[in-house]
Amino acid sequence: MLAEILLSEQQIDEALSHFEILLTHAQQPELELNISPSQALSLRANLAYANYQQQNWQVVLDHLAALEQLQVLDKNNLSMRFIAQVQLKQLKAAIVTNQALLVLEPETLRWWQQLSALYSQTQQHQKALATLVSAERSGLALGESLLRHKAQLYAYLRVPEKAALSYAQLADADSDTSLLLRQAQLWQQAREWQKSAKYWQLLAEHKPEYNLQYAQVLLLSNQYTQAIEALKLADPQEQQAKSQLLLAEIYLEIKDYSLAYTAAQRAHNLEQSSQSERWLNYLEALVADTKA
């Protein structure tokens, strides 16, 4: 068939003209054009492909819909439908097509990735996450980008411990400061103080100002001596008032009210605030009670 030859030679415009003439004739019984069922299938498939090359997305979908009335669409036809639907922002329809492709090629990571992305774009974040988890369970390696996306989805869905574990799978999880910070925050959200402290400590080795957060987590895990030592390493210029207030809180926990009051007083002298004033009033009363 001349049209098929033109198509194979990438003469798309000429091929389309011939295919459309054939389709018009095939739809007019009075012309008695003998087209076999297999030729009719081939005609529809070729029309879809030629229009796909021309990026006539809606026409592609129309021809594939007609073809689907005659046979089950194969992988290539489904791929064309999927891309046309995405280009036309028909995302819910694209999800259905993507699912069909996944049934045909479950070992192809691309289909899992695109399905997860479509769920995210349609605000179905739980399904987006479940898709990536299913891909892993089927034995596929997600790679750095998808692991990061999985971690972000866990965090968005408020599952901080699994988000932190997903970030930990990344290659530079123990060296990249932004990843260290994210893991520290997530473990803290999960109230896993020891694990959070590990990452705050690693961050503090890079930037001393993180010793303040490190000390806060140590305080939460009742490691008072270590918390005091961490505060000594905090940035003395920008965090002195905050450090002294935290020191007051530590001394309060170990019931050394005099040292707690002294620390709160230093904080108030450095940076007066309603918070430091409340601490002073509270600790002053405690000191007075112990002396009474």
Beta-strand percentage range? under 5%
Largest sheet: none
Question: What is the arithmetic mean of pLDDT?
Answer: 88
SSE run: HHHHHHHHHHHHHHHHH
Share of helical residues: over 70%
Radius of gyration, in angstroms, nearest whole number:
33 Å
- Cα distance spanning the termini: 107 Å
Shape: rod-shaped
State the low-pLDDT regions, or none. Answer: none
Secondary structural class:
mainly alpha
Assembly state of the chains shown: single chain
Q: How many helices? A: 17
Q: What's the number of extended β-strand segments?
A: 0
Word description of this protein:
- It is built from 17 helices and no strands.
- The protein has 292 residues and is mostly helical.
- Helix content is 75%, strand content 0%.
Compact summary:
The protein is an all-alpha fold and 292 residues long. Helix content is 75%, strand content 0%.
Present the secondary structure layout.
Blueprint (H helix, E strand, L loop, with lengths): L1 H7 L3 H15 L10 H17 L3 H12 L6 H13 L3 H14 L4 H13 L3 H13 L5 H14 L3 H9 L8 H13 L3 H14 L4 H10 L3 H9 L7 H14 L3 H14 L3 H18 L1
What are the key terms here?
single chain; 292 residues; mainly alpha; 17 helices; 0% strand; rod-shaped; TPR-like_helical_dom_sf; TPR domain protein
